[in-house]
Amino acid sequence: MVKVLIETNVWREDSGSIRGGYEDLGGEFDDVASDSITASTLNHESDDTIILLIGQTGTGKTSFIYNATGNPNAKIGEELESETSEISQYDLFVDGHRVVLVDTPGFDDTEIPDADIFRNLAEWLAKSYKQGKLIAGIIYFQRITDNRLSKNAKRNIFTFKDICGEGFMENVMLLSTLWARDGAEKEKQARREDKYKENGDYWKSMLDQGAKTDRYRHYDPHEFGDAQRRAHEIISKILDNQPQTTRIQQEMVDEERKAHETTAGIHLVSEIDRLQEKFDRLIHDLEEKANKSERDREQYKAKLDDLQRQAREAETQSQKLHGTYKATVAAAIGAVVVSVAAVAAAALSSS
């Protein structure tokens, strides 16, 4: 069981200030995906406009939140390590509407999917739906500075599509970020944006289903006023959306599926299984080569160690996705305790 605190950071247009703090919800809730949940939807008002922010680490989500809210607690770092390990909410007013920006952990550009990030997001969406809180929009952040999308970035887009479902796409905004101000670089980025729109592996299928696009450039600190106005312009385009349920909400609540049984979860499980088979095959091939001679063993040792590490990580993510990771760890600890106790008993009996 965990206690849930709500971080409240409300930007007031009339006073130009932030009212912030934490509210204790006065209760405890089942821990569904992790040992700490720093935000929930339990204190949202019925007329709130709830907008999720989703994207890879380093795509500018935190900068957007800071610019939209003026909240200095939305930390911005130069390193590509996510500032967000849990789901947080930031409240502000735009055009007279109370808006709740829900910041989700950044998808990492790694070969092995992060099960914790997926399960936390899935469980948050399910809990929100159970409470009758529907999502007005989801902004998917994508760097326009990337020359091409990596295979892992494409997988993240596929997962995002699975989470939303076709019926929610009209409420999706694909926001390309870090645009240059002008000149040749901006022209090159515009051509790249066209490729995103035309490629079925990137944005095309989502646009065909009703998703919208927009741009958000990099702003220097002294341009905060312009940055905030632009962020509010983007948010205002979502205010008139009819709140909808995402596919994963319908699957987890209406159909009572677990996260790994949803469309997105099944595809992630399949991807992890494929990676495990790949690592096992590579490990087997390397072990055969390494066993030919001592020199070969030294030559392949580092690569073999790395593959074995990746195989263990894939197994861990698979267990987390299925919700069996804690049980597996507990069983392993229990086995160690039993083993130590047996050794101690044997030592005592022989003394």
TrEMBL record:
Gene3D superfamilies membership: P-loop containing nucleotide triphosphate hydrolases
GO MF: GTP binding
SUPFAM superfamilies associated with the record: P-loop containing nucleoside triphosphate hydrolases
Occurrences of domain G (ranges): 51-112
Alphabetic keyword roster: Coiled coil, Membrane, Transmembrane, Transmembrane helix
Keyword Ligase: no
One Pfam family cited in the UniProt record for this chain: MMR_HSR1
Coiled coil (UniProt feature): 272-324
Record protein name field: G domain-containing protein
Source organism of the structure: Orbilia oligospora (Nematode-trapping fungus)
